[in-house]
């Protein structure tokens, strides 16, 4: 199971200024492309603003301030109150789970989010004393050291992670960047290629790897890396900048000029996009969304320790902060369903009907809850939605047939739905369902024919054998 903190590593916004002349600029902005960090150009410098690294599908493309707490004079009283409540909750978390590195890591991330980096560092160091191999704490500490320009300490924090989890793309990128800044280009290549061999291609790593190969004067390899980066993100400007540099070094002047033009074009578009997003930035809304993720992760930790009441409280607080927080709703609904509070589970999930309209698994879960509540019409509506989403898949038809059988509704229609399921997927289970529905609707010959087909596909199934014997005996 994924740890509570793993989902939101790098969640807290920080800002790192990098001069355009710095070769690792391309890599920093490459990481931004995948993690919602937007480069803002001004006088030849880029500012990379790190946004939430919660699941990529939920990233918000909005530049965030370094810390609301650090801007106390401009933070609204509402925000100050929210942050104070969160700090108190983090203190309780650490007090309750002082032996759990995840709790310490979560508290450190919150302090870092609020601009108190020294306190965050001290908590991460405490965490590593307790659990030296804690990946989250090491990566967070390495990131803070790197952003402070302490590349030697960043390397020391991150090396054990690269050895322990070579596929960790963020750790590999940060370690590679720290090594690059120290002029250790061959080591940069080794770390990133180890990661590439153990995981899927990564935009940030490909760009940094290209820069390292350029520094080593291995221009063909550099060009290949930048081309790979462009395949991953065709609209990412800095990959074209690196590609132009590699082409120049290879004497491919025309190609280099073409890539430089593309770089300038995309860079201008990105700048306009960043300015537009800055104008739409809502400080209080973003703070609420960020803190809600903290409460969701804390709730998971409490649940793992068997404290359902505290988990429920934290997930409710998450939804009070951000009613659109889907993970908080899913966790709370699961808790309610597991404790028999089915109506409450449904009420928690209902607001997601629009945002998860195209998610068949969401409608399946909702249908299951309605069926348990004996709410046939609502369950049928949810299952119909699954059929609409995947009309060529058997599951929706089979589920609708099963619903009718369980609730003794319209056996003839159940048999027709089971037939449609078989038509799409002629599995033993679907033939068995068709057999049951056919018998209920009074079609004995079809019931027997279907169970024979089920046995042909799964002859050793005792349930199918018993059904066949029962039908035979009833002839």
Provide a quick synopsis of the model.
The protein has 475 residues and is mostly helical.
Q: Which terms summarize this structure?
A:
3% strand, 475 residues, disordered N terminus, single chain, mainly alpha
How does this model look, in words?
By secondary structure, the protein is mainly α. The protein is 69% helix and 3% strand. Helix 14 runs antiparallel to helix 15. The longest helix has 27 residues. The radius of gyration is 28 Å and the shape is globular. The two termini are 51 Å apart.
Give a topology summary.
Elements: E1 15-19, H1 25-35, E2 38-42, E3 45-49, H2 77-96, H3 101-113, H4 117-130, H5 135-147, H6 151-164, H7 169-181, H8 185-198, H9 203-215, H10 219-232, H11 237-249, H12 253-279, H13 283-304, H14 308-321, H15 326-338, H16 342-349, H17 360-372, H18 376-389, H19 395-406, H20 411-424, H21 428-440, H22 444-457, H23 462-473
Antiparallel strand pairs: 1-3, 2-3
Helix pairs in contact: 1-9, 1-11, 2-3, 2-13, 3-4, 3-13, 4-5, 5-6, 5-7, 6-7, 7-8, 7-9, 8-9, 9-10, 9-11, 10-11, 11-12, 13-14, 14-15, 15-16, 16-17, 17-18, 18-19, 19-20, 19-21, 20-21, 21-22, 22-23
């Amino acid at each position: 199971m994924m740890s509570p903190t793993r989902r939101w590593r790098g969640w807290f916004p920080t800002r790192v200024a990098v001069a355009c002349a710095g070769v690792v600029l391309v890599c920093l902005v490459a990481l931004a492309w995948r993690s919602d960090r937007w480069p803002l150009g001004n006088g030849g410098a880029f500012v990379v603003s790190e946004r939430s690294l919660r699941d990529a599908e939920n990233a918000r493309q909005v530049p965030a301030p370094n810390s609301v707490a650090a801007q106390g004079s401009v933070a609204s009283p509402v925000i100050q109150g929210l942050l104070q409540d969160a700090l108190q909750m983090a203190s309780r978390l650490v007090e309750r789970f002082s032996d759990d590195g995840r709790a310490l890591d979560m508290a450190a991330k919150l302090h870092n989010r609020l601009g108190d980096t020294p306190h965050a560092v001290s908590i991460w160091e405490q965490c590593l004393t307790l659990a030296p191999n804690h990946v989250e704490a090491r990566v967070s500490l390495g990131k803070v050291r790197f952003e402070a320009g302490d590349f030697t300490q960043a390397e020391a924090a991150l090396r054990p992670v690269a050895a322990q989890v070579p596929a960790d793309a963020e750790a590999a990128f940060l370690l590679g960047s720290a090594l690059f800044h120290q002029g250790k280009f061959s080591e940069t290549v080794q770390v990133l290629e180890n990661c590439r061999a153990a995981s899927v291609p990564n935009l940030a790593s490909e760009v940094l790897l290209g820069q390292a190969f350029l520094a080593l004067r291995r221009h063909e390899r550099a060009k290949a890396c930048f081309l790979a980066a462009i395949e991953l993100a065709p609209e990412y400007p800095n990959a074209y900048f690196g590609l132009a540099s590699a082409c120049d070094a290879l004497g491919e002047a025309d190609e280099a000029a073409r890539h430089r033009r593309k770089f300038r074009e995309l860079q201008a578009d990105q700048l306009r996009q960043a300015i537009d997003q800055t104008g739409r930035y809502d400080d209080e809304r973003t703070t609420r969304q960020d803190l809600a993720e903290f409460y969701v992760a804390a709730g998971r930790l409490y649940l793992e320790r068997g404290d359902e009441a505290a988990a429920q409280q934290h997930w409710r607080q998450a939804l009070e902060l951000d009613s659109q927080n889907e993970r908080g709703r899913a966790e709370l609904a699961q808790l309610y369903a597991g404790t028999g509070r089915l109506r409450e589970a449904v009420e928690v999930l209902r607001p997601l009907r629009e945002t998860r309209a195209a998610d068949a698994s969401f409608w399946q879960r909702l249908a299951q809850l309605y069926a348990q509540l004996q709410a046939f019409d609502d369950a049928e509506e949810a299952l119909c939605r699954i059929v609409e989403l995947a009309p060529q898949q058997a599951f929706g038809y089979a589920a609708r047939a099963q619903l009718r059988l369980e609730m003794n509704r319209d056996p003839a229609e159940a048999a027709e739905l089971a037939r449609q399921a078989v038509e799409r997927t002629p599995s033993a289970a679907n033939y068995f369902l068709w057999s049951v529905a056919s018998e209920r609707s009074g079609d004995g010959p079809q019931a027997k024919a279907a169970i024979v087909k089920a046995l042909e596909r799964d002859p050793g199934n005792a349930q199918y054998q018993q059904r066949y014997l029962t039908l035979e005996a009833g002839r």
